[in-house]
Amino acid sequence: MSTADFRELRGVARTMVLPLYARAVQSKRRNPILLDPHAQTILDQLQLSASELADLDKESKLLPIVACVAATIYDRWVKEFLEQYPQGTIVEIGPGLDTRFERLDNGQATWIDIDLPESLAIRKRFFQETHRRHFLAESILEDSWVEAVSKLANQPILFAAEGVLFYFREQDVRALYTRIADHFPGSLFLHDSCVRGVAENSSKIRLCQTGGAHFQWGIDDIHEIESWDPRFRVEEVDSVLNHYRSHYPWLVRFFTWLLPGMRKVFTVNKLRLG
Fold first, then answer.
1. Model confidence, pTM
2. Where are the beta strands (DSSP E) in the chain?
């Protein structure tokens, strides 16, 4: 594909390159957090200019670490789900250029990717639909995807929104929870979150912005969502700062040791909705 195609993306859609870049960078390390050979291949085919790659590298030295540690947590929970329900369905919300299907597919499960039309158009350059892998060009903030997922999915369903909900308003997050609980009761929902202070100051934090998109939603304790609706339940919470600590800069290791509460800044959450 040409660089012009990618450069036309703005806002949330443009964030699709950040986790891809993170996985490519980590895969080159001697002791990588996450090994993803597909990431570098796709990054090469995007033909980003040297200045664009340099800009990505400047975003944050923490980015490749945080993104890849988060991906390992998602991978662990998706693996557990597929071990228990090998013919279940994985619905990935805003996957961008994610390669979880390539990493984890068991040959039996159904996979459904829901993304904005402009993002999905780029995804289709690198990944193919099959009888078990489906792409839906929809906004997750609308109702239009619900019927399609209902027709394609086998129960039970696990929804995953990696690196997505940060960019939503709280009312949009609540609406998405409700939509899943209403139409797919009992489903698991995996997503990451940050504390409110990070979201409120995201315009000043390079890790939290790219392509004109800033974090909008933060929550200090994910268990707060249980007060939104009795159907929303938190099953497990894990911090990206709990794992692969030797990969983090020494200052991060020191302050998270000195102030353990800092480990709650970025978490990955497993919820049961409905």
1. 0.88
2. 89-93, 110-115, 133-137, 157-161, 187-194, 209-210, 213-214, 232-239, 266-273
Return averaged pLDDT per consecutive 10 residues of the chain, 274 residues in all: 49 69 84 87 80 67 82 97 98 95 96 94 92 97 96 97 93 97 98 85 51 79 97 96 69 61 83 97
Helix axes 50-59, 17-27, angle to 10 degrees: 90
Cβ-defined contacts of 43-46 (< 8 Å, 24+)? 43/17, 45/1, 45/125, 45/126, 46/1, 46/3, 46/6, 46/17
Q: In degrees rounded to 5, what are phi and psi of residue 234?
A: -90, 125
Q: Are the C-beta atoms of residues 47 and 69 closer than 8 Å to each other? A: no
Domain ranges for the chain:
63-273
CA distances (Å), 33 to each of 6, 22, 81, in order?
27, 10, 22
Burial code (b: 16+ CB inside 10 Å, e: under 16) for 211-227 equals eebbbbbbbeebeebee
- Whether domain 63-273 has CATH 3.40.50.150: the reply is yes
Q: Is 117 exposed, middle or buried (0-12, 13-18, 19+ CB in 10 A)?
A: exposed
